[in-house]
Amino acid sequence: MQRLGKNLGAYFGATIDIRAVLRAIESAAAAHHWASEIFHSERDFHWLALHRPGRPGGKRIHLSAGIHGDEPAGPLAALRLLQENRWPDDPEVFLLPCLNPLGFVLNQRGNAQGIDLNRDYRNPRTAEARRHIAWLERQPQFDLYLCLHEDWEAQGFYLYEQNPDGQPSLADVMVAAVQPVCPLDLSATIEGRPAQGGIIRPNISAQERPDWPEALYHITHKSRQGYTLEAPSDFPLETRVNALVAAVQAALAHK
Ligand SMILES: [Zn+2]
Q1: What is the 68 CA–ligand 1 centroid distance (Å)?
Q2: How close is the Cα of 166 to the center of ligand 1, in Å?
Q3: Is the pTM of this model over 0.90?
Q4: Are strands 144-151 and 60-65 parallel, antiparallel or unpaired?
């Protein structure tokens, strides 16, 4: 599969009508009986937290997308997962399909003020991060978080693993599930970090970082294992959605 070669210095690929995508997400969630909570509103947008109960003893999973407004595959993957409705019975899923709708209106990484929400989870100055954190504080602990992202510079799909307690890793099963549907980034260095087979296991001391991404909030406060999934946005949008959906389904199905 060839790269499109469109992204010169930023993302210049396909964009989405975020209002239409969010309407479709709401109707798919309602059709499949997800509970829906609005945890923030601004202009005509509602920030949704969707909930699907699992079975007793099942894992509790926080799945979030759309924190960067120039990464359309995340919300589209959330929509596809809802529409296909092939969720395993066991896990309880909290799905936050779009954390930055105002960024999508502008097709930009940051919010309407240009602030990168994914650097605002330690001492939040944005309403979006503050309201998400306030919602998180009302939730139980999660067994797993998955953050859906895209990278316009990537050679292929890759992921970051946070697993400080050395629990059984889901990285290999996710990468194996993505490999048939989307190229992997097999570079030895990705985003300046050592990588192997599309997997980055960063050594991050949260306390030393002033600007937490969402994942560092999760690993510090809510969850002891999680993954940031990065689809390569120089490939066709459909391919990137396929990659994120395949990775999420593999993680959810894994016992
Ligand atoms: Zn991102």
Answers
A1: 5
A2: 25
A3: yes
A4: parallel
d(CA 230, CA 232): 6
Q: For residue range 169-205, what is the model confidence (pLDDT) as tens digits?
A: 999 999 999 999 999 999 999 999 999 999 999 987 8
Q: At what angle do helices 237-253 and 73-84 cross, to 10 degrees?
A: 60
Give the count of alpha carbons within 13 A of 60, CB side only. Answer: 12
- How far is ligand 1, taken at its centre, from the CA of residue 151, in Å? 6
Q: Extract the tokens encoding 59.
A: 């894992």
Q: Please state, in angstroms and rounded to a whole number, the distance separating the CA atoms of residues 142 and 251.
A: 14
- Cβ of 43: how many Cβ atoms within 10 Å? 9
**Alpha carbon distance 243, 239 (integer Å):** 6
| CA 32 to each of CA 3, 27, 246: distance values in angstroms, whole numbers, following the listed order | 36, 9, 20
